[in-house]
Write a structure and sequence with these properties.
This protein has eleven helices and 18 strands. Strands 1, 2, 8, 9, 10, 11, 17 and 18 form an eight-stranded mixed sheet that branches. Strands 5-6-4-13-14-15-12-16 form an eight-stranded mixed sheet, sandwiched between helices. It has a two-stranded antiparallel sheet with strand order 3-7. It is α/β, with parallel strands linked by helices. It is globular. It has a domain of about 260 residues: 3-Layer(bba) Sandwich (FAD/NAD(P)-binding domain), CATH 3.50.50. α2 packs parallel to α6. The longest helix has 24 residues.
Length: about 425
């Protein structure tokens, strides 16, 4: 029977949190959002000796943080060449280096905090469908080697099955730095690390309003008010009109959908996805897929940009995609189907910024495990004065006059991207 509970949640194997219901009257810092960004920021801020309170509208990791594909890969949502062209070589290089550093940082946190989250770092690969993709991979690989000193391997049609055992793909661009983990266990471990550092986490306490006062802010929740010197908004794809309407205008929630199969024999899983790499396809409406720790095949994608697709219908679509790539799985059951919201900005870049004096960090566009970890940590270090700047703070954060709160334009964008994929552009 198909479950619409996220697989990672079912599989986490951790005791449910009891959840605090008492809100302190004051704090040095209030972090809004108990996902990867907020928990990493809280871990850093509390360790610096600040009284830190994390509040969330739901439970810890109730957004996309615990239910993503669990992939940690290089780069940002915006293409690296475009980043360099847009911001120049110096800032572009800083942003690139941050994306690589984010993978190392996740690995370091997992080790330092002893987080049991099945972390693996066997590399990753982008998969192409046609000869034009091979040409693109060759140019991309050469440019990254020359401009960045970043080495990748281009695999052509004669050897692509060494990367993924599927007749669908023509070529691959393989890197050696990509990683994967169990996101629900990672977030649970981050929450424990933040609490050990001294942070207080209060669940089911949505920020209803934030008002500015002479000495800081007052955050109103259903559990009461808390006065604080600083606020960090870490809500990414779940940023609503409340409590800060202006922030919603800078990020668009986009739905991403995932299914998993029942477990496969270990030898079959290894043959289908050798070396347990993280994989994704060279399309705008891309699919991303991997093996889970118990050798299921996880398949994710964005067949539509909306956040409210029917999960049974999504299972049918992504199940068909799974069989298209791996025909031998036609009789293998899809056991779980779920979704989560990405936070996508109009420039496809992550941002650290301030709005009405409050800090925020968001806009990962599907790179939230690594970049959310990095920006949460970096925002925390900025707030404590450990850092005096961040490159993600120095790039403009664009909005659009036609976007106020509801992303009415997403269906039109979806049709446009689907057409470009169909014609190979």
């Amino acid at each position: 029977m198909l479950s619409t509970t996220p697989f990672w949640t079912d599989d986490a194997g951790v005791a449910p949190r009891t959840g605090r219901r008492d809100l302190p009257g004051e704090a040095d810092v209030v972090v809004v959002g108990a996902g990867i960004t907020g928990l990493n920021a809280a871990r850093v801020i509390a360790a610096a000796g600040c009284a830190t309170v994390v509040i969330d509208a739901g439970t810890v990791g109730a957004g996309a943080s615990t239910v993503s594909g669990g992939m940690v890969n290089y780069g940002l949502k915006a293409a690296t060449k475009k980043v360099f062209k847009r911001y120049g070589a110096t800032l572009g290089r800083e942003l690139w280096d941050a994306s690589l550093r984010s993978i190392d940082l996740v690995e370091e946190i997992v080790a330092a905090a002893s987080i049991d989250c099945a972390f693996v770092r066997n590399g990753a690969a982008e998969l192409g469908y046609r000869p034009a993709d091979l040409d693109g991979f060759e140019h991309e690989s050469a440019w990254m080697a020359d401009a960045l000193g970043f080495e990748t391997d281009v695999v052509g049609p004669e050897d692509v099955r060494s990367v993924v055992d599927s007749a669908v793909f023509h070529c691959a661009l393989v890197d050696r730095v990509g990683a994967g983990l169990h996101p629900a266990r990672y977030v649970t471990g981050l929450a424990a690390a933040a609490e050990r550092a001294g942070a207080m986490i209060v669940e089911e306490a949505p920020a209803q309003a934030i008002s500015r006062h002479t000495t800081g802010y007052q955050v109103l929740t259903p559990l009461g008010k808390v006065a604080t010197r600083e606020v960090l908004l870490a809500t990414n794809g779940y940023t609503g009109v409340r409590p800060v309407p202006r922030l919603r205008k800078g990020v668009v929630p986009v739905g991403s959908y995932i299914v998993v199969t029942e477990p496969l024999p270990a030898a079959d899983a290894e043959r289908l996805i050798p070396w347990n790499r993280m994989l994704w396809t060279a399309r705008r409406f891309l699919n991303y897929f991997r093996r889970t720790p118990d050798d299921r095949i996880l398949m994710g994608g964005r067949n539509d940009l909306s956040t409210d697709l029917d999960l049974v219908e999504s299972a049918q679509i992504l199940g068909a995609t799974t069989v298209d790539i791996f025909p031998e799985l036609a009789e293998v059951a899809i056991t779980h189907s779920w979704s989560g919201n990405l936070g996508v900005t109009f420039d496809l870049m992550p941002h650290i910024g301030r709005i009405d004096g409050m800090w925020y960090a968001l806009g990962y566009g599907g790179h939230g495990v690594g970049i959310g970890t990095y920006l949460g940590t970096e925002a925390g270090r900025r707030m404590t004065g450990e850092l005096d700047r961040s490159p993600f703070e120095e790039i403009p954060h664009p909005t659009r006059p036609y976007y106020r709160s509801e992303p009415w334009f997403l269906p039109f964008a979806a049709r446009w991207y689907r057409m470009l994929d169909a014609i190979g552009r």
